[in-house]
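Minutes, project check-in
Item: structure for the 177-residue chain
Input as provided by the requester:
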Amino acid sequence: MANFLLAKARDFCKTGNASELRLLLDACTPEQIDTIILAKTEGDISVKRPSSSNEYDIREPNLLVTSLAGWYSEIVDCLASYGVGLETHVDVRDLTCDPSNPSYSCKPLIIASMLGKVDMVKSLVSNGTDIDGTNSLGDSSLLEACFEGNYAVTEFLVQKRASLNKQNDRGITGEYK
């Protein structure tokens, strides 16, 4: 039964059918919801930053992270509303400079900020994700939005009181000096 539910949830996510996804998840137990949202997808997904040629592989993403790489903000909103997986880390590897680069760990909000998906960022924040959470390099969602030059995401995060003074591992903050 769990494999059937997971397969149906993945199909709804791929097709952008948020209403059917919500009906499916609402009929599940909390344990089944956790299993469905946190289940790792088969294979990696590749994403590119919108304003650069940087390409990343996201290793074994769960359903929430896989949905961030798509274009259906309603799917992310639906999944995030259950509060599952908002703080889960996934491995991301930067393929731009050196494909043998080690991977680093990212949360869903940081990935959405990196990709400039403001509606998805808003959904994750409104559903309780840690706005100042960092990846394993110390970069916050605000820093990722700033690095990307994404004004809409940066503005939203600042309005929601993301820390401007939080330093990453290289001493960079979101504060303009």
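Outcome recorded: The two ends are 56 Å apart (CA to CA).
No further action items on this chain.
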